[in-house]
Write a structure and sequence with these properties.
alpha+beta
């Protein structure tokens, strides 16, 4: 019983209420449409962003590969960092591409290594240095975060700057003007005179 009564309170603007004005019906429909746009549009924006980001990360995993390189210089010893974070430093390395061409460049490697050590570096299909692509789990998590951000951004734009806010503002201004007009008609007859 109380559930039914509570449901009626939420939809008070849709009921036949003697105090209901035309503006109340318009406002209720605007709110319904805005929330539907937020729900559907936010979900679509999130899904599209998720799939686009996931495709980019998948392409990175196919275009980038790890190669073994030889360290050409000694790297300084590792400093003790709290939390076990890796110390990386830029150092000169030499590697060979699939066609046997030798390349030399600077790459981020772990500290505390001697010249001649083998290190793994990541290169793209053109043989240029790049960063390690995210794993499939990392890519899924990052894609989900980007999708959620896109959904929230769409919802914020639709809610704050959408037609709903402007239409509700105009309805409120119209109601205030209407109340002012009615008060100007009725107010003087309610005035008390004191002697």
């Amino acid at each position: 019983m109380s559930r039914n009564r509570h449901g009626k309170k939420r939809l008070w603007r849709m009921r036949s209420n003697p105090l209901r004005r035309h503006d109340d019906i318009v406002e209720a429909w605007i709110a319904l449409v805005v929330w539907a746009v937020i729900a559907v549009g936010g979900a679509l924006a999130g899904l599209v962003t998720f799939h686009a980001a996931d495709e980019v990360f998948a392409a990175q995993r196919t275009q980038r590969h790890s190669v073994q390189a030889v360290l050409l210089t000694d790297t300084p010893p590792a400093s003790s960092t709290p939390g076990g974070a890796r110390d990386l430093i830029k150092a000169k390395v030499r590697w060979a591409t699939a066609d046997g061409t030798s390349h030399t460049g600077s790459a981020l490697v772990d500290t505390g290594q001697k010249a001649g050590s083998e290190v793994a570096v990541w290169v793209d299909s053109a043989g240029n240095f790049t960063i390690e692509p995210p794993s499939s789990k990392e890519a899924t998590l990052e894609s989900a975060v980007l999708g959620l951000t896109a959904a929230l951004a769409f919802a914020g734009v639709a809610f704050g700057a959408g037609a709903g806010a402007g239409a509700r503002y105009r309805l409120d201004r119209r109601r205030i003007d209407s109340w002012g007009t009615e008060w100007n008609l009725v107010g003087p007859s309610w005035g008390r005179t004191t002697s």
